[in-house]
Amino acid sequence: MKKGYKALLEEANAEIETVPAEAAIAHHSGGCDGGRTVFVDLRDPRELEREGRIPGAFHCPRGMLEFWIDPESPYHKPLFAEDRRFLFYCGSGWRSALAAKTAQDMGLADVAHVGGGFSGWREAGGPTEAVPPRKG
After folding, report:
1. Is the domain covering 18-26+35-123 a CATH 3.40.250.10 domain?
2. For 116, left (φ over 0), alpha (ψ -120 to 50), or beta?
3. Domain locations in the chain?
4. Is the pTM of this model over 0.85?
5. Could you list the pLDDT tens digit for every one of the 136 residues in the chain?
C-alpha cells in the first residue's frame, strides 16, 4: 500500500485545526459567534439514529461532502457557499480530520474538526439530541 490511513490522518492533522471537545461544547453552548459556526455531522444515518447528534448539527454524510461543497456539482448545498465556520465531527475524529482537510483543500476558509469526535463530545458532557428513524 502506497499510503495508509495513518499517514493520511497524520498529514491531515498537521494541516487542520483540531478543536478539543470541551472547547467545542463551550462554543456550542455560548453561541459566542452569533450562530456563524455550523456543526457538521459526517456520520452514517444509522449512527445518528443509534447515538443521537449534537443539537442543531447539519448532517452531511461523509461520502457526499465533496459533492455538497462544490458549487459546480448538481448536489451542491448552498450552506457550504455561505461565510460560515464549519466544525466537522464524526464518531471518533478520524473521518472528520480527513473531511476538514478536504474541505480546506477545496477552498472553505474557516474549517476545523472536533477532536475525539462525537464520542469525545459525549465523554466531555456535551448535549445531544435524538434523531428519529428515517422513513422509507
Report:
1. yes
2. left
3. 18-26+35-123
4. yes
5. 899 999 999 999 999 999 999 999 998 876 666 778 999 999 999 999 999 999 999 999 999 999 999 999 999 999 999 999 999 999 999 999 999 999 999 999 999 999 999 999 999 999 999 998 877 6
